[in-house]
Amino acid sequence: GGHDNATEYNAIWTLESLGAMFEAGARHSVYYANAEYLSLLESDFRTPRPVYHAFKMFSELDGQRLISESDAPDTRVIATRADRRLTILIWRFGTVHREADVVISELPSDIEVQYRSYLVDEGHSNFQLGQAQSGLYMSDEGKVVTTSAGELELRVRLPRTSAVLVDLLLE
Q1: Fewer CB near the terminus (10 Å): N or C of the chain?
Q2: In a 10 Å sphere around its CB, with 0-12 CB exposed, 13-18 middle and 19+ buried, how is residue 70 labelled?
Q3: How far is CA 71 from the centre of its chain?
Q4: Is residue 166 a contact partner of residue 87, using CB atoms and an 8 Å limit?
Q5: 167/64 Cα distance (integer angstroms)
Q6: According to DSSP H, which parts of 33-138 are helical?
Q7: Per-residue burial over 8-43, b = 16 or more CB atoms within 10 Å of its CB, e = otherwise
Q8: Beta strand extents in the chain (DSSP E only)
Q9: pTM higher than 0.90 for the full model?
Q10: What is the pLDDT, as a whole number, of residue 75?
Q11: For 140-155, how does the pLDDT look when each residue is reduced to its tens digit (9 = 90+)?
């Protein structure tokens, strides 16, 4: 019961809409909610809802759009590159958790890449669990090295109905 607007479902639905706008060439949008259940913040005006974090994730997409695709019908992906920073946003409506292999090509060979992953799902970046966090939940971080062919592969955990932002810095 109640509205799903304050849950991860609204956040992922919003990413689906923003992704379609991005595909159509829109680079700016205005979000206005005149109803409390549609707002980005809780009624205390300090606690971000999951949809706030979805907008935050989308705002991290900067620079040149890269060719990106998903082989799973329930999963969407957008990737961008600005100088030595690559950003990948993956979102999905799903019923089970799954893993995704993210493969990036045409990178310099044998370089170190620092990465951080951020997550919005039913248990992370979601105020409904009583979390006292205002920022995105960092789900993973580390360093990897590109292959001699200039490729990088990361395994990303995709909980059901979730969004993952992967931020990579080429060193």
Answers
A1: N
A2: middle
A3: 17
A4: yes
A5: 14
A6: 50-59
A7: bbbbbbbbeebbeebeeeeeeeeeeeeeeeebbbee
A8: 64-66, 75-82, 85-92, 98-104, 112-120, 137-145, 152-158, 162-170
A9: no
A10: 92
A11: 999 999 999 999 999 9
